[in-house]
Structure formats: structure tokens, C-alpha cells
Amino acid sequence: MGVSTGTGFNGSNRDNPDPSKVLGVFNLSRRTDEESLRKVFGRFGEIDRLKLIRDRFTMESRCFGFVKFVHQADATDARHEVNGVELDGRSLRVDYSVTDHAHEPTPGLYCGEARQRDYDRRRR
User: Per the CB 3.0–4.6 Å rule, which of 3, 5, 8, 99 could disulfide with 15?
Assistant: First the structure.
């Protein structure tokens, strides 16, 4: 039985994304903040954007973020040098991002799958 690795909308394989200016940084500590990430990654080149992903209700870190460099070569150097480095007690995983921008949150509030009786009521 094969395992699907999935692809991004640009056709990149999620397990082996194409080199890009955008790096995904995973396994961050909840203590890690934007300033810490900027210090770690800023030594490799000019950063265009840096985003630590937070829970939209609690504003706690979701323990991952994205760093977009101005130049792809800087992103490549940073990926090579920072992947596996320990920051705030956690070993970082750094990889190219499948997309070059953050995903937009879906509108509305998800309340679970509609039950049959809810579906029937809406059809009337």
C-alpha cells in the first residue's frame, strides 16, 4: 500500500519541497519569540518577513513559523546551517516552504459535521 506525500498547489512535494526564499521552522519552544528567530536567521541575510504562528484565540505560539528571505541563496544557507540546531531547549527542523505565503484562515466557525436532522431541517 502506497503512502501519499501530498503536493502543494505549485506541484512541490511536501516531503521534498523545491528551494525557495521561504523557510518553515518547526519544533519551536513556546518560549521562542519573533526576536529570537530574527537573531538566529538574520545572520544569513536580509529577512523580508518573519511570522511566528500563534493560536488566534489564546495568542500562544503553535511552535512553528516562517521566515522569508530577500534572496533564495540566503534561505538555502540558513536551512543548511540551522536545521537541527537547538533553540530554547528544542532541536529545530527547518525546511523550504511548499508555498511562498501563509495560508489564509477559513472564514466562519466550524462546528463539526452536520447531523442528518440538521441537514433535513435546512432543506425545508
Answer: 5
For residue 123, is it within any domain? no
Task: Identify the residue whose cell numbers are 540558513.
Answer: 78
Give 93's contacts (C-beta < 8 A, 6+ positions apart): 25, 26, 27, 83, 84
Residues 94, 74: contact at Cβ < 8 Å?
A: no
Domain count, the chain: 1
Domain of residue 27: give its range: 22-102
**14-31 residue pLDDT tens:** 667 789 999 999 999 999
Q: Which residues on neighbouring strands pair with residue 90, listed in sequence order?
A: 87
What distance in Å separates the CA atoms of residue 54 and residue 20, rounded to the nearest whole number? 23
CA–CA gap between residue 93 and residue 76 (Å, rounded): 14
User: Where residue 55 sits, what CATH number does that domain have?
Assistant: 3.30.70.330
Average pLDDT over residues 71-92: 98
